[in-house]
């Protein structure tokens, strides 16, 4: 078997444009956690299932591993600062954000293009990541354009002069 260069692996996936999500949860002490993730995808329509994968070395991994819920936020095109904030490791990433309480008090970030409130129904090992499968219990789609990520950068929004570089 050929070994795959990690940089080339990352660069190759840069050819795939994706949306950008922030995924939030609460731990048993009701502390809020969130990460930026573009590994999110839909899996099944009936029942409505989605998945995303998280690095098992993320500081928030224990919170997501132990929680039975998460909320996926599909970011709007003016929310690259929120993507950058949640892509930095550790700390309280929610300070100063406009937040509302979702099912079982999970934090919902206002202003996104859509959000999906999910019950975690499975977690599968996936190399250095863990794949979380969620059953969508409630979702909201707002009339906002999504943030798009490609080649390690956010694509410019309508009228924006330049690309902004993502934090990670
Ligand atoms: C656009 C983008 C997409 C990302 N997608 C993922 C992902 O799908 N899974 C993941 O584990 N980390 C992903 N990351 C990296 C995490 O957001 C980053 O490691 C973060 O610091 C984790 O936070 P934590 O250490 O506080 O848990 C992504 C970062 C960016 C900028």
From TrEMBL:
Record carries keyword Metal-binding: no
Keyword Oxidoreductase: yes
Every Flavin reductase like domain range: 13-156
Gene3D superfamilies for this protein: Electron Transport, Fmn-binding Protein, Chain A (2.30.110.10)
Highest taxon in the source lineage: Bacteria
Pfam families per the UniProt record, alphabetical: Flavin_Reduct (PF01613)
GO terms assigned for molecular function: FMN binding; riboflavin reductase (NADPH) activity
Keywords: Oxidoreductase
InterPro entries in the record: Flavin_Rdtase-like_dom, NADH-dep_flavin_reductase, Split_barrel_FMN-bd
Family assignment from sequence similarity: Belongs to the non-flavoprotein flavin reductase family.
The name this protein goes by in its record: Flavin reductase
Organism: Pararobbsia silviterrae
Lineage start: Bacteria, Pseudomonadati, Pseudomonadota, Betaproteobacteria, Burkholderiales
């Amino acid at each position: 078997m050929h070994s795959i260069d990690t940089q080339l692996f990352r660069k190759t996936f840069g050819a795939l444009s994706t949306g950008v999500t922030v995924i939030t949860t609460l731990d048993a002490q009701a502390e809020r956690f969130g990460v930026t993730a573009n590994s999110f995808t839909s899996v099944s329509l009936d029942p409505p299932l989605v998945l995303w994968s998280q690095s098992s070395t993320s500081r928030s991994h224990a919170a997501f591993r132990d929680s039975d819920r998460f909320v996926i936020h599909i970011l709007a095109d003016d929310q690259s600062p929120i993507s950058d904030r949640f892509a930095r490791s550790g700390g309280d990433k929610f300070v100063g954000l406009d937040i509302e309480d979702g099912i079982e008090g999970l934090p919902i970030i206002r202003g996104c293009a859509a959000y999906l409130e999910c019950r975690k129904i499975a977690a599968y090992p996936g190399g250095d990541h863990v794949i979380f499968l969620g059953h969508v219990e409630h979702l909201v789609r707002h009339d906002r354009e999504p943030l798009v990520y490609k080649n390690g950068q956010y694509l410019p929004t309508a009228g924006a002069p330049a690309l902004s570089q993502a934090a990670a």
